[in-house]
Every structure is written in structure tokens, then in C-alpha cells.
Amino acid sequence: MCGRFVVPDVAAVERAWQIDHQDWRQADTPLFNVAPTACVPILRQLSDGLRALDGARWGLVPAWWKKDAAPTHTFNARSEEAAQKPMWRHAMRHARCLLPARGWYEWSAREQARGAAGKMVKQPWFIHAADSPLLAFAGLWSVWERSKAGPLLSCTILTRAATGNIASIHDRMPVVLEIDQQSDWLNPTSTADRVQELMTHPRTRFDARRVSPRVNNVRNNDPELLAEFAT
């Protein structure tokens, strides 16, 4: 799964991708500890072929949702079943996006670290790519027309079985697309077979380092969270 990640600053995103329309209003500083339900930037292709950078709720709400409260636990979607599940299948066909990231956090059940209160907790890791300062998570988006408020743009991150050294930390990881895969992912006319191929053969090379249990508290949001943690 992916329950926390690091959002880059707007300038870095603008340098990395062609953006024709922008509605991402986050301050021009990175977000070092993003949790579900936060507003995060997504890159999507519009019907006219242009690309937009928008802010979206992290936790997808499908267009057909009828309850007043948004569904829970929709910040990740398993890539192996997304094309069949009612929660995801429309977006899989018509509403795919990229979530820019510097990396993500995962917690190892095999290791423990001492937290701020002296209690032993799972050891957190920061997973990133040393050769690529920005990553692109494969995502899905939706617009929910709320009955008592305006429309809500929301998103989810697709996940897959972890590979390589990441598998020793956690059994799931985001689907991270290579640069030459991203256009096909965003293109709403890409075939179902091509979309499946992209999810089956994404980037698999990553680096990881232990980081401080301070990341467990979502109120902590500073660059020191990414520093190597001495065990």
C-alpha cells in the first residue's frame, strides 16, 4: 500500500511535465508527510488533449456515490483488480492520472524503532529513486457532484506487489511509471491491454533508507523527515 508520500514543490513539477492548465494552489514548498484525505496535485489529460495540474482529494469518491460522507480506504486501488471493481473500473477506462512524488514512506513489521514517547514502533523507511528526483505514481481520478456542496475532484494511487529490495520492507508498493510510459497512461484512448501492460511492467528500481519515527505523526512536515535515521 501507500499511505504517506512526499509531494514536490510546484516549480519542480512544472519543470518535469508539460502543463497547459494549472489549478494547483499549494504553496511553493514540498509537502513532506502527506496523508489520505489531503489535497494533492494530479496531472491529467483533458478531453481537448491538453494537460492540467489540479488539486484533488487523496481518497477517490466515484461519481455514482450517493451517501453524504465520502467512502473510506479509497486512497489505494489494487491494480490487479481495478478494471473489474465497481469502485475503480470507470476511472480505469476513462480517468487515469499521474501523482507527482519524491517518494513514499513504508513501515517494516520486521524492524522496530524507538518513538518519541519511548515506545517501540515499526521502523519507517523512505523509498525513492536516487537517479530520479521526481516519480510519477499511476492514479485514477473522479469528480463527485455533491448534493450539499460543489463538485469534488478526488484521486487514488494504484498499487502492485512489491519487487526487489522493497519487498523486504512491505509486500505492496505504488505503480510507478517510467517517463516513456506516462503519455500512454494519461491518454484516455489507450487500449485496456496497453493499460494493463503499463501496470504490469512499471519501474522496479528504487532506493530506501530508514527514517525517523517522527513521520508517524502527520503534523510533522519538514525536510528532516527524509534524513537517514541512525538505529
Describe the structure.
Helices cover 13% and strands 36% of the residues. The protein has 231 residues and is mainly beta. The strands form two sheets. Strands 3-1-8-9-13 form a five-stranded antiparallel sheet, with no helix packed on it. It has a five-stranded mixed β-barrel with strand order 4-5-11-10-7. Strand 4 and strand 5 form a beta hairpin. It is globular.
Topology summary:
Layout: E1 5-7, H1 10-16, E2 21-23, E3 31-34, E4 39-45, E5 51-58, E6 76-78, H2 89-94, E7 96-101, E8 103-114, E9 120-128, E10 135-145, E11 151-161, E12 172-174, H3 179-186, H4 192-200, E13 207-210
Parallel strand pairs: 2-5, 5-11, 6-11
Antiparallel strand pairs: 1-3, 1-8, 4-5, 4-7, 7-10, 8-9, 9-13, 10-11, 11-12
Which descriptors apply to this entry?
single chain; mainly beta; 5-stranded mixed β-barrel; 13 strands
- What class, by secondary structure content? mainly beta
Radius of gyration: 17 Å
Strand order of the largest sheet: 3-1-8-9-13
Please tell me what the overall shape is: globular
**Stretches where pLDDT falls below 50 for ≥5 residues?**
none
Major sheet, described briefly? 5 strands, antiparallel
The count of helical stretches stands at 4
- The count of DSSP E runs of length 2 or more, i.e. the number of strands, is 13
Helix content: 10-25%
Q: What's the order of the H and E elements?
A: EHEEEEEHEEEEEEHHE
What number is the mean pLDDT? 93
Euclidean distance between termini CA atoms: 24 Å
Fraction of residues in β-strands: 35-45%
